[in-house]
Structures are given as structure tokens and as C-alpha cells.
Write a structure and sequence with these properties.
heterodimer, A: 314 residues, alpha+beta, OB fold (Dihydrolipoamide Acetyltransferase, E2P), five-stranded mixed beta barrel, 7 helices, 17 strands, B: 204 residues, five-stranded antiparallel sheet, three-stranded antiparallel sheet, 5 helices, NA-bd_OB-fold (chain A), DNA-binding (chain A), Replication factor A (chain A)
């Protein structure tokens, strides 16, 4: 490593301590040089070591460091998390806290910044302070994770949490799709879910793939396909959205199935009401699905004039 | 995700162009690879979505039920569809529906060569549903827009350029270039008839 590269690193470290310590850039360069060139330590590790030395001298904690980077992580926007197992820093607001489903998890929920939202998990054994809903934090040293195409961040023992005075605004990461509803897939209509704690799997012939034969709980759902002639969007409508879309509520669906001694009549009835119509749907994405938060039937008059003028002119 | 086969988009096309789409092909040698018809404006179609007026249904089967449905677009051109025992939902809709009615149809293009060597293009419906006039009107405008985009792309393409879209080049080879003008006319015709209907409706 050249002298000028070392000097760049040294200047950055110097800046981090300029308020607390009377140190001289040359001194920092010398320490880095010893580690990197004499002991062949990688520069990132050398920086860590030198920073630690100065932290000790100043009697400071790592997370008190201003400027520069606290531990060599990149600060990322939550929408930019696109790979697992990366150490990053985020500045985000706690949008929602969910009920942890296992003792190993202290807190779980949703973090958001200007670019969108991301799930977070905080382990019990990490022994970190509690996050509060609605507050904004700088979280340093969190690890990214991925499950079925969805990314999350995990807080761990080395994570530092600093509450921010400023409120970080949470951006909207929902997407909009419109088109004709061209298909209602199997697993739609009146379904049964596994009643076991932590399990909401949809039963197949009365069986849960995890818990075997169980007494299921009824639910309404539609897995539909919106198609605008250029691309398809798979949409999941939950109980409320399904009722709004079809006018069929859970109780009514149960009665329909009871009368017919068959649950499939519900999906058949729903098909007749919504298939082939145009809709606009908004909501967040989950894997390859859009989860419908808002929906409207597109029935308004459409304007043909503009296209007609274009068609006549070519 | 690479592991999930992507669902084929349902193309929007007026009956005149659809019925001219006699050239079919596959993208791979796999037996189960999807079959596409080539739209004369230069786009492949493995599925179509259409909304029009169901004017006639008839059981044309000999041993078992085999329903034919005729659905007419605003230019008066007809889509033909056939549903038998393997399309039970669509077949029962054709059995039960009373023409005339607006219907929305999702289906797969199928071609059939007659004894005279002509290729007939029809639809094997996946679903048929009864819809209202607003849905039909929206489909007409949407289909006009999509068709016009294809016509425009076709007209602007340089067939000598190897970078030209492969389906446009394919259409240039397989179909008569002059027919492109017909599809522009079907866009104009469909929109004009829609405007006439709307003018009549507001005059009433």
C-alpha cells in the first residue's frame, strides 16, 4: 500500500477523533504503515485496530464516533438491500412491531426509510435495548438476510442502536398494477388454514404439510392474475379484500359451502363475479405476489379520441 | 425466479388480425414447450384475452358435446371458439349463455388446416364470463392501443437490420406486408364504432 493511500485512510481516522484527541495525521499514518506494511494486515483490519487504540485513549465507545464510518460498513437504504449476509448500517423508523413467535426473538417488526420498508429481527441473546414503534434509529452493524426472495435485517450482539432526534420518513414501497383479471388460481375462495400457533399454512385435503391432519380454520382468499396485455401480475386478496371484491363475506361463504356440501362452489361463484373484468390494485409485493391493500374496478368511460387521431395519422 | 415458469401474457388483438395469424411455432424442441401463433403485426401469442358480443352458440359435437361459440368484435369480425369435455367450465358457459351477450374470454390460440389447405385460427377457451358494456368498451380501446403500437413498431422496423425484433422479421417473412394496413384500419373502425355508440347513447 502506497504512502498516499495510507494517508487518505489516516486522514479519515484523524477526522473522527479530531474533537476528542490531540493527534497528528503523521502519527496515524505511522501506525497504519506498521500494521499494513510490516505485519501484512489488511487495511480494513488495520483501520479497526488503530481506531480501537484511539478509542481506548479517548475513553470512547465505538458508536460515539462521529463522521466517517463506525466499523467500515456501508450505510444503505432499505430498498437497496439485495443480498444476504452483508454487514450494513441503516437509519430507519420502526413502522410496526409484531408479536415474536419464538423465545429466541426479542423483537420483530418492520423498519422503514425514505425508500421503503424491510423486516427486522432482534435476537433475545443479543441483549440489546428495546426499539419503540414510531421512533427513528441509527442501527450500525446489522446483517442482511434473505428468505424466499424477501430481504430482512438481523440485529445482533455487535449492533449499536442510537435513537435519532430527526424523524425518518417512511416511503411507500407499494406498487400498482392494472389489467383484466384473467385467472383465479387454485387455492382461492373458501380455504382452511392450520390452527397451530405460528402456522397459517393452507390445508390440502384437511392436512397441513407441517402438522398433518388438523381441524382447520376457515378463511377467504383469492389468488388472481391481472394481465394488461404486456405483463402479468399475480395478486393475493386477503379476507377483507376478497369480500370487497366479490361482495361475499366469510359467513356467507360458509353457508354457501354448507348448502352445497362443497367448498368449491364459493370460488365458482367468485369467478362469475370478477373474472374478465378490469381492476386496479395497489399494495406491497411479497415474493412474486402483490398483496392487495386497495383495489378498484375500472368501469369509467375510456377515451378513444387520442388513439383514433394517432391511428389515422400513421 | 428461474424455477417458476412464467405465465404467458394474454395478448389483445382484433378478430381480423387474429384470424390471419395462421403461422405457429415453438421456441424449443421440448414436447411441452408452449406453442405460439405469430400475429401478423409481429408479436407471438400463446394466450389471448378478448371481450365481444356472443352471437351464437352451437353444439357441433358428434359423440360428445363440443360447443362452438361465435364472438363478434366492433368491426363485425368473428372470433371462433371451441370447448369440449376438457374445457368443462367454458363448455358449460357456452351451453348456458343466451346470445346476444357481452362475454370476456381468456384462451389459447389453436390452428387447424382444412382439407382445402386453408388454416383456420380459433380459440380454446380457458374461461368465459358474462360482462357488461363498460368492460367491452375498455377492451376495445385497450386492444386498439396495443394493436396500434404493434403496427407502428412494424412500420418503423428496418427489415434489413439484423437487430430488428425477431418476431417482426418473422412476420415480414411469413405474412403479406400489405395486410398491415388492414390492422390499422381495424383500429380506426373499432374506435369509430365505439364513438358512434357513445354518441347515440348520449343522444337518447
Amino acid at each position: 500500500m502506497t504512502e498516499s493511500d495510507l494517508r487518505t485512510h489516516a486522514t479519515e481516522i484523524h477526522e473522527q477523533f479530531s474533537d476528542q484527541l490531540e493527534i497528528d495525521v503523521d502519527d496515524v499514518v505511522e501506525r497504519l504503515d506498521t500494521l499494513v506494511n510490516d505485519y501484512q494486515v489488511p487495511i480494513s483490519e488495520a483501520r479497526r485496530s488503530v481506531v480501537n487504540t484511539y478509542l481506548d485513549e479517548a475513553g470512547m465507545d465505538r458508536d460515539q464516533l462521529g463522521g466517517g464510518d463506525g466499523g467500515g460498513n456501508e450505510q444503505v437504504n432499505v430498498a437497496d438491500v439485495d443480498a444476504p449476509e452483508e454487514w450494513v448500517d441503516v437509519r430507519a423508523t420502526v413502522v410496526e412491531l409484531w408479536e415474536p413467535r419464538a423465545d429466541a426473538v426479542a423483537q420483530v417488526g418492520l423498519l422503514g426509510d425514505e425508500t421503503g420498508t424491510i423486516k427486522f429481527t432482534k435476537w433475545s441473546k443479543s441483549d440489546l435495548p428495546s426499539l419503540e414503534e414510531g421512533k427513528s434509529y441509527a442501527l450500525r452493524n446489522v446483517v442482511t438476510d434473505e428468505y424466499q426472495g424477501r430481504f430482512s435485517v438481523k440485529l445482533n450482539r455487535t449492533t449499536t442502536i442510537e435513537e435519532l432526534d430527526e424523524a425518518i420518513e417512511v416511503g411507500d414501497d407499494s406498487v400498482e398494477a392494472d389489467g383484466a383479471l384473467v385467472d383465479i388460481q387454485s387455492g382461492s375462495g373458501l380455504i382452511k388454514r392450520c390452527p397451530e400457533d405460528d402456522c397459517t399454512r393452507v390445508l390440502q385435503n384437511g392436512r397441513c404439510s407441517e402438522h398433518g391432519e388438523v381441524e382447520g380454520e376457515f378463511d377467504l382468499r383469492i389468488k388472481g392474475v391481472l394481465d394488461d396485455g404486456e405483463e402479468v401480475t399475480e395478486v393475493i386478496f386477503d379476507e377483507d379484500a376478497t369480500e370487497e371484491l366479490t361482495g361475499i363475506a366469510l359467513e356467507e361463504a360458509k353457508e354457501m359451502a354448507m348448502d352445497a356440501l362443497d367448498t368449491t362452489v364459493v370460488a365458482d361463484e367468485m369467478r362469475q363475479k370478477i373474472l374478465g373484468r378490469y381492476y386496479r390494485v395497489r399494495g406491497p409485493t411479497f415474493g412474486r405476489y402483490l398483496l392487495a391493500d386497495e383495489q378498484e374496478r375500472l368501469t369509467g368511460a375510456v377515451d378513444a379520441d387520442e388513439i383514433l387521431i394517432k391511428a389515422r395519422s400513421i | 425466479m428461474a424455477s417458476t415458469p412464467t405465465r404467458e401474457v394474454a395478448r389483445r388483438v382484433f378478430a381480423r388480425e387474429f384470424n390471419d395469424a395462421s403461422y405457429t411455432f415453438k421456441e424449443s424442441d421440448d414436447d411441452r414447450a408452449p406453442v405460439y401463433v405469430l400475429l401478423p403485426t409481429g408479436q407471438r401469442a400463446n394466450r389471448v384475452f378478448l371481450v365481444g358480443t356472443l352471437t351464437e352458440t352451437e353444439d357441433v359435437g358428434e359423440d360428445s358435446e363440443y360447443w362452438q361459440g361465435r364472438v363478434v368484435d366492433p368491426n363485425g369480425d368473428t372470433f371462433f371458439m371451441y370447448a369440449g369435455q376438457y374445457q368443462p367450465d367454458a363448455a358449460s358457459m357456452l351451453r348456458e349463455l343466451e346470445p346476444p351477450a357481452y362475454v370476456a374470454v381468456v384462451g389459447k390460440p389453436r390452428t387447424y388446416e382444412t382439407d382445402e389447405g386453408e388454416v383456420n385460427v380459433s380459440i380454446r377457451p380457458e374461461s368465459i364470463s358474462k360482462v357488461d358494456e363498460a368492460t367491452r368498451d375498455r377492451w376495445v380501446v385497450e386492444t386498439a392501443e396495443r394493436t396500434l403500437d404493434r403496427v407502428k413498431r412494424y412500420k418503423e422496423a428496418d427489415m434489413e437490420d439484423p437487430a430488428t425484433d425477431e418476431y417482426i422479421s418473422m412476420a415480414d417473412e411469413e405474412y403479406d406486408q400489405l395486410s398491415i394496413e388492414n390492422y390499422r384500419q381495424s383500429v380506426v373502425g373499432a374506435l369509430e364504432s365505439l364513438q358512434d355508440e357513445q354518441a347515440e347513447a348520449s343522444a337518447d
